[in-house]
Write a structure and sequence with these properties.
Blueprint (H helix, E strand, L loop, with lengths): L4 H13 L2 E8 L2 E8 L1 E2 L5 E7 L3 H8 L2 E7 L7 H4 L1 E11 L5 H11 L4 H5 L3 E15 L3 E6 L2
Antiparallel strand pairs: 1-2, 1-5, 3-4, 4-7, 5-6, 6-7, 7-8
Length: about 150
């Protein structure tokens, strides 16, 4: 599918407007979900987040770096059936590229300034999800795919 500019703008608008998403990893052949603060790079190719290395999600990602992040704008009302947009991001997670770590940390902290101490701590890993695909769901059942690779 060719990426249309309106679809790209929908993804950009949603990811810029939301501060948290649900990260899905795998633990012992079961889905494991975590609420995560995130930021997205301008080209939409990486999602950046931070986690302590002593967490289950970090261990899960070491064992299997494939992950998905769900971000949505629901407001928990019946209008969500028509108005809510959800984006499921799929890709592979790794520690932030050392050459870009400072840049990615700054991007993350611009969106989450209250997390500076946490994200800068030695025991915290700055991670990047290298995006393979965005699945955009709107109007309850309309699904569009935006491939990044």
């Amino acid at each position: 599918m060719t990426t249309s500019e309106p679809l790209r703008q929908t993804v950009r608008t949603l990811l810029d407007s939301q501060i948290q998403g649900v990260l899905a990893t795998q633990h012992q052949e079961q889905p494991y979900t975590s609420l995560m603060a995130f930021a997205v790079t301008p080209d939409l190719r990486q999602i950046v987040f931070a986690t302590a290395r002593a967490t289950q999600k970090y261990a899960n990602l070491l064992a299997n770096p494939r992950a998905s992040l769900l971000v949505d704008n629901r407001c928990n009302s019946t209008a969500d059936y028509e108005n809510a947009v959800a984006v499921s991001v799929q890709g592979v997670v790794r520690e932030a590229d050392p050459k870009r770590r400072a840049e990615l940390l700054e991007l993350y902290l611009r969106k989450h300034p209250r997390l500076r101490e946490f994200a800068s701590a030695a025991e915290c890993a700055l991670l990047q999800l290298d995006v393979e695909c965005y699945y955009v769901v709107s109007q309850f059942q309309s699904v569009a795919e935006m491939r990044m690779v």
